[in-house]
Amino acid sequence: MNIWIRILPLTLASLLWLLIFWLWPTHGSPTLAWINIVLLFSFSIALSIYGIKLFRQTDEPRPGSRLRAKLVIGLVGMLLIPAGTLQIAANQMVEKGMNVWFDVRVDTLLDRALSLAQGFYSRIDHDLRQNLVHVMHDDVLLTEIDNFPANYTALNTHLTEIIQDEGWQSLQLYDRNERLVAAVELKGLSSFKTEKLSEQAKLSMALGRVTSELGKRNGGEVLIGYAPIEIHRRIVGLFKAEVALPDGLVKHARAVESDYRTYKELEHHRQSIRETFTHTMLFVTLLIVLAVGLVALGFSRRLTSPIGNLARALKRITDGDLDVVIPDAPDDDLGALVHSFNRMSMRMKENVEALEKAQSDLTAALASSEQRQHVLETLLANLQSGVLLLNAEGEIRLINESLRHLLTLSPDEWAVGKNFSSLSRGKLKMFYEFYDELSHQQNETLQRELEINIQGKKYYLLARGARLTASDTTEFSGYLLLLDDVSQLAEAQKHRAWSEVAQRLAHEIKNPLTPIKLAAERLQRRFRNQVDNHDVFDSCTQAIIVQVERLQRLIADFSSLAKLPKPSRKLSPCSAFMLEIRDLYSAYPRVHVENTDTTLSCYCDADQIRQILINLMENALAATAEKQQDVRFYLTQEDNFVLFHTEDDGAGIPDNVREHIFEAYYSTKSDGSGLGLSIAKRIADEHEGDLCLVSAANPTHFCLSLPMQSTKQEQA
Amino acid sequence: MMFFTHLAYAEEPLAKLHIETDGNVIYCSTSPHINIQKLSPLLQDGIPITFTWDISIEEAHDYWLNKDVGSVQFYRQIMPDLVSRQWLLKDSNSGISRATASKQQALSFLSQLQHFAVIDKSLLTSGSTYEIRVRLYIEEGEPSNGWWSRLIKLGKTVSLGRFTMP
Questions:
Q1: Which of residues 123-162 of B touch A (CB under 8 A)?
Q2: Residue A635: predicted pLDDT
Q3: Scanning every residue of chain A, which has its alpha carbon at the shortest distance from the alpha carbon of B1?
Q4: Is residue B49 assigned to a domain?
Q5: Among A389, A414, A415, B13, which is disulfide-ready with A398 (CB 3.0 to 4.6 Å)?
Q6: A708 in helix, strand or coil?
């Protein structure tokens, strides 16, 4: 808020305090002065409180309050200036007027007028007193009074002569006891009734002096004189004489007296009159200021109320509350503004609601899209198949981890946005050729089996591709390539094929072998003595028997491969295997069996595992037979697997053999079937374990891993 | 014409109130400290002056408000007659109206209370303490008889006295 607006109330209050100090009533000031002081005091207190409140106000004032304060201050200020000017002018006029009214010339004039009236009265009074003195010293009269009532007629006549001579209206004679004893009137005696003597009359009789006083008779004023009757140095009565004052003169004299009194009274209260006028003006001014202030407050409140409502409503809208409707609107421009605001607020609310709905829909769509994307990504991540999505230009739009893992692709190189053709080099050339064929053929889909050599290992991959074309729901067009590792499947198919062949061969060959062997043995027994050369005969027949036996063993191995039984697994102590191997090969001092006292167990078919272990030991012994080198057999544990190790210090396995050693029918031995390690590998696989060549030489190290517990599926 | 009620003529301290018993009546006398010098010019200028006396008697209580027993109010007025140079004296209590040429006599009449009957003894309780308060209202000009004049008439206690009924 403007600093001037802030300090204005306190400034006005200070001025009012000064005014109070200046106008503080003195002793004898009119009551109105105190009323004005009370009013000014109330104003200044109210202004001081408002000013202090305004000065200490730190937060934002209520909406519209500043405008209201300005309006009130403006309206009151507009009134104060002319009112103050009028007050000063009026005071000056009164001051000047008083100087004119109470001019010394008027004073003198009135004094003279009064002096004239007083002179007139004094003259009559003086004459009356002088005449009464003459009367009270009239010896004839005093004698008549002394002889009263004997000479009543003479006294009455004498008194009548006196009033006629002096021009008195009446003359009465009272005795010492204040009783009326004689009376004459100029117009004839109307009544003879004793009137109570006034204090002045009594005083005259008491003091023995002539006195006078004014009285009223028949609507006019009379001058009444009293003179004591002193006879023989003793006051015996009282003369009471009345002189009628001329009505016209009395009237004028009293008018002069009245005017003089009024004038003097006003002059005496001159200061009071001025103060009264000043304070009356001030009182009226204060009342008008109060009334105008209240009217201004009401008017400004009525005027600023819609503005305040608008400001509050705007603040609420700013704070995000759009349910704002200003109910009361005056029928004027502000009312139109309020109506416009209400319409704006309503439209804003509708727009915001529409926006919120759109946002909600978009959020839901986005969430749905993200959910779908998440599902798709999860699906792709967990999909064993490698997935590659290319756009029409051959750029990668999507690639999953399975494909990267399958083809050992670099994540930095094979990323979204990269060109597929530039990345497909070397071993991946066949993959690109598949894509190229798909993109140039007429059909929508394509399927091929690819044989790719990755890190020296041959993989059989099933490649499937589909062309994606733009539709109503999507504008995307490109190619979807799926790559599955079918090496195990191919291996299984190969095994199955071989097993079938072996079964057929075994079936076809096994049957004639026994008669051949029996026939050879019969020939040997029956015709040995009939031949000349026994050595040749024995050699031939023995060769037939040996080869037949070899063929029988070979067929037995084929049968084993083809009819390998499902393992019957149970928890078996590893120490049993270790002890059996130690005892079996105890004749070989170069065989070192360790960990015979192990407490570990494995979950396996003991017969089949025993067959693997013997196979491994036999191979090791065969490899070290020539130089009688050491063979080691020991046991370790890793995670939930037990590991049987065979190591020998033989010549080792050549690199070109190494990759084929687990293949069926592959053997470097002249009499080997090539099925031993193949069967062992298959048994290990069926036990959910593994048989692997750890090192091909120095030492030659095979490792058989077996689970220590059953799988959950088996437990179920 | 009466402008304002003035108290400026009554001065501190309170005048002594003489309380006396004569027969069955309680009388009081007092001469309040009145600044006559201020009144004299007014009279000289022909402005009437009215002294309204308000004499109240209360039963005094030490630890509670006094109890009103009775009060009497009357006025004395000087009406200057500028033409005859006399002072017309009016006493509303006695009803006596007289004129005097002595200003001093007129002022004494106005400002002194002599042997004024306050209350009958039969209305008072023996052994109780009573307080007589004399308030004076001084008016310049013609006294106003309007109802509002009583509201703005400001009096002042000029004399106070206590006595205990035997």
A1: 140-141, 152
A2: 93
A3: A262
A4: yes
A5: A389
A6: coil
Contact check, Cβ <8 Å, A213/B84: yes
Q: How far apart are CA A387 and CA A405, in angstroms?
A: 11
Residue numbers of the domain that contains B105: 5-159
The mean per-residue pLDDT over the stretch A66-75 comes to 77
What is the Cα Rg of chain A in Å?
76
Give the Cα separation of A487 and A461 in Å (integer). 7
Assigned domain for B18 exists: yes
B164: in domain: no
Query: Which token pair is A361?
Result: 């829909």
When pLDDT is cut at 50, 70 and 90, the band that residue A343 belongs to is confident
Residue with tokens 């999505």: A389
CA of residue A229 relative to chain centroid, distance = 115
Q: What is the spatial distance between Cα A254 and Cα A114, in angstroms, rounded to a whole number?
A: 9
Residue A478 β-bridge partners? A391, A468
Which of chain A's residues have a Cβ under 8 Å away from the Cβ of B4? 28, 30, 269, 272
B155 contacts B17 by C-beta, under 8 angstroms? no
- How far is Cα A38 from Cα A48, in angstroms, rounded to an integer? 15
The CA-CA-CA angle for residues A568, A574, A576, to 5°, reads 90
- Dump pLDDT digits (tens) for A16-58: 899 888 888 876 677 788 888 998 899 889 888 888 887 777 7
Residue B16 lies in a domain: yes
**pLDDT category, B5, cuts 50, 70, 90?**
very low
A-B contacts (CB, under 8 Å)? 70
What is the chain B residue with the closest CA to A255? Answer: B83
- Please tell me chain A's helix, strand, coil percentages from 3-state DSSP, rounded to the nearest 5: 60, 15, 25
Q: In terms of Cα–Cα distance, which of A566, A368, A361, A398 is closest to A482?
A: A398
Total of domains in chain B: 1
Q: How confident is the model at residue B1 (pLDDT cuts 50, 70, 90)?
A: very low
Exposed, middle or buried, B36 (CB in 10 Å: 0-12/13-18/19+)? middle
Q: What tokens does A141 get?
A: 């009269």
pLDDT recorded at residue A645: 94
- The region of weakest confidence among A92-101, A188-197, A217-226 is A188-197
Angle between helices A65-101 and A270-318 (to 10 degrees): 170
Query: Do you know the residue count of chain A?
Result: 716
Residue A596: which of A581, A586, A614, A608 has the closest Cα? Answer: A581
Give the pLDDT of residue A554. Answer: 72
What is the pLDDT, as a whole number, of residue A475?
A: 67
Q: What phi and psi values does residue A485 have, to the nearest 5 degrees?
A: -85, 110
Pick left, alpha or beta for residue A135 (phi over 0 → left; psi -120 to 50 → alpha; otherwise beta).
alpha
Sign for the CA dihedral angle at A247, A252, A256, A262 comes to: positive
- pLDDT-based confidence at A233, cuts 50/70/90? confident
Asked if A390 and A420 count as a contact pair (C-beta separation under 8 A), the reply is: yes
Contacts of A220 in chain B (CB under 8 A): none
